[in-house]
Amino acid sequence: MSSSSTVKDAENLRRSRILSSKLYFDAPLSKVPLIYSESYDISFLGVEKLHPFDSSKWGRICRFLISIGILHKNSIIEPLEASKDDLLVVHSESYLNSLKNSSRVAMIIEVPPVALFPNCLVQQKVLFPFRKQVGGTILAAKLARERGWAINVGGGFHHCSGENGGGFCAYADISLCIHFAFVRLDISRVMIVDLDAHQGNGHEMDFASDSRVYILDMYNPGIYPFDYEARRYIDQKVEVQSGTLTEEYLEKLDEALEVAGRRFDPELIVYNAGTDILDGDPLGRLKISPEGIALRDEKVFRFAREKNIPIVMLTSGGYMKSSARVIADSIVNLSKKCLIDTGKGSKAT
Ligand SMILES: [Zn+2]
Questions:
Q1: What is the C-alpha end-to-end distance of the chain, expressed in Å?
Q2: Highest taxon of the source (predicted)?
């Protein structure tokens, strides 16, 4: 068999997996394109407390939004879990098999004691919540196409590629979301705006020389993952050094979005909105204020709105105790500025 027919076979297989997936489903208009499931949140016999992460931030974001009356509990859309066939759209069989080894998962999520647990428990307590979040990211593109925007209150595992996990990221939800959108939404130009503090080496490796995907990555080069190979695949690189303050950060972002808008004309934007740029975050080492995060998100949503491009937002990194509140406040701000409509918020005076 020639190599070109092998590539074609692989492409056909990918296509048929995407077409037979159940992850794209119709949500009634009474629901808001805000995606979350209680099973996103990770609790692992207390072991989750050994990680510097707030592993229930996703639920806390929703509870904040509900408690202040901007979101009704019943308007949230619950995604399905990504199946093995769904994951095979991007991941290799051998990578997925490697997750059957608890030590491997412990390394990926950076919680060493997880290595001691039987894999069935690791699957149920860690990988299942992640697969639900992956289902949410994939569904978000469909909803964004229909409603203009969608927020997955989770996902954004930008360190994972088809062949490699790391940095708390076990599945490549961004790459999966984009491949599903190519086929199911029949689009061919996607822009990733990755504003998590870390470099998004996973999607960069996956779309290395794929001209259908334009990657704007604004990250701190002095922290994990130091992936110099993946850096070569960033279309627009904006490096922000440790200690960068809000004003300078937002100026750089304005400039970056202006350039991105001139260079590429996307049909979908995947916005990786990590909050580890927040002042005090031990991993991100930047000094952006909570108001700065809201302004950042507003700028990206405005960029999409002005060009009439559907936008998917993922919450990604940033797991300080304060992160959930900051994200909820930013979603409230987006609603106040009429950049999203959560059903209740826009009706409030
Ligand atoms: Zn990060």
A1: 66
A2: Eukaryota
Centre of ligand 1 to C-alpha 348, Å, is 34
Contact yes or no for 163/201 (Cβ under 8 A) = no
Say how many C-beta atoms besides its own lie within 10 A of residue 339's C-beta: 18
Tokens of 124: 């149920």
Active site residue 72: no
pTM attached to this predicted model: 0.96
The closest of 32, 34, 80, 29 to 312, measured between CA atoms, is 34
Q: Mean pLDDT of all residues in the chain?
A: 95
Q: Give the pLDDT confidence of 73-124 residue by residue, as tens digits.
A: 999 999 999 999 999 999 999 999 999 999 999 999 988 989 999 999 999 9
| pLDDT, mean of residues 28-54 | 84
Q: How far is CA 6 from CA 27, 87, 185, in A?
A: 37, 20, 25
Cis peptide before 225 (omega within 30 of 0): yes
Provide the β-strand partners of residue 218: 238
Q: What is the pLDDT of residues 164-220, one digit of tens each?
A: 999 999 999 999 999 999 999 999 999 999 999 999 999 999 999 899 999 999 999
Backbone angles phi, psi at 153, to 5 degrees: -75, 60
Q: How far is CA 18 from CA 144, 282, 322, in A?
A: 18, 38, 37
Span from the CA of 205 to the centroid of ligand 1 (angstroms):
17
Cβ-based burial of 282 (10 A; exposed 0-12, middle 13-18, buried ≥19) = exposed
Q: How far is the CA of 316 from the centre of ligand 1 (A)?
A: 7
* 189: CB partners within 8 A, 6+ apart: 212, 214, 264, 265, 266, 267, 268
